Amino acid sequence: MYYAQIDEKGRVHTVCELAGIIESPNVIPIETWDESLLGKYYDPASKQFQDVTVTADKTTIAADGVDKATITARVPAVLSEITFYHADTNEPIATLPVDPEAHTATLQVTATTPGVIRIRAGDPTMTRLNEVVITTQ
Q: Is this prediction's pTM over 0.90?
């Protein structure tokens, strides 16, 4: 049988094949081997695995320290906060509360030098739906 193992927040950290039936709140039976579940969150109410997804209202901003992009993370209901990171370095930018009604958190981004900013919400995933790229000019 195949299982997805989740942490205390419901995030899948391991997909495994085990002999026999395992009954545990942090071991979720799955139909097939599916590594794309790594990094997703399990919602016990809907019995679905959900991604953190990230969007930006702009993909290009002026490098003037004034122009800004709004990064929005849509997160599963099990999360009450989310940390935004520099995706290239894993350095945290900010941990922000999640709106409990909309299941979103937003981050404002400005820049003073031209280049590329890669931002991730939460832990790395295989799908990278939780990353966004902003070009600064």
A: no
